[in-house]
Design goal:
The protein is mainly α. It is built from 2 helices and no strands. The longest helix is centred in the first third of the chain and has 30 residues.
Length: about 70
């Protein structure tokens, strides 16, 4: 029984360390602006999908702009 308790304590410590690392990575990601970047990409993807559907409705083909178009 003591071994099981010791294993549980080790697992709790590992979980605490993993949580700290995850929290630190979230801080780094936010500081780097990756959350805003990912949201912007999601918005662009959504708009491109809507434009593609609209182009098909009117009988055309929509070509999403690429980085080289800027």
């Amino acid at each position: 029984m003591d071994k099981l308790i010791n294993i549980n304590k080790v697992m709790e410590k590992q979980n605490a360390i993993a949580t700290q690392i995850q929290d630190q990575m979230n801080v780094v990601r936010k500081a780097a602006g990756l959350d805003a970047f990912n949201r912007a990409n999601a918005i662009v993807d959504s708009l491109n999908a809507k434009n593609s559907v609209m182009a098909k409705v009117v009988g055309g083909v929509y070509h999403a702009p690429s980085a080289g178009d800027c």
